[in-house]
Amino acid sequence: MSAIDDLFSRLSRSPFRQKFHLGHGEYAYCAEKGEEKISAHAADFVRDRLSAAQPANDGKQTPMRGHPVFIAQHATATCCRGCLSKWHHIPLHQPLTAEQQAWIVTVILHWLRLEMQRPQPPARKGKKKALDDNQLSLL
């Protein structure tokens, strides 16, 4: 079994991780922007929010909604250094290597590809739509 298959097998046994799915807006955002743009966002978020040995606000730096990558990070336990340590065996208190950052992005994209194979969730009335690029640049 490959490392990613092993990880997703373990994640599938976590009720907390299994409750995460893309909403209508995040699904549409992925479809509109495409994998290359979403991959770039993921790489930026991982570099800016997780790669330091002691990330600012560790454990609280990844929002629960607002961007498909954020949802994927919670679903794949790539949201904070504690989860990276527990689920991915990436040591705490050390900067992430380029290889570790690439692994995290690979995991996030794998989850997003699986989510995009599901039917698009219906739009919810009265809910905010996904953030646009201008709003995301403020994050």
What does this structure look like?
The chain is mainly alpha-helical and 139 residues long. It has one domain. Helices cover 56% and strands 0% of the residues. It contains seven helices and no strands. Helix 3 runs antiparallel to helix 6 and helix 4 crosses helix 6. The chain starts with a helix and ends with a helix.
The oligomeric state of the chains shown is single chain
Q: What is the element string, with H for helices and E for strands?
A: HHHHHHH
What percentage of residues falls in helices of 4 or more residues?
A: 55-70%
Number of helices: 7
Q: What is the arithmetic mean of pLDDT? A: 90
List keywords for this structure.
about 0% strand; mainly alpha; about 140 residues; about 55% helix
Quick gist of this model?
By secondary structure, the protein is an all-alpha fold.
Fold blueprint:
Layout: H1 3-11, H2 15-18, H3 24-49, H4 68-75, H5 81-88, H6 98-116, H7 133-136
Helix pairs in contact: 3-6, 4-6
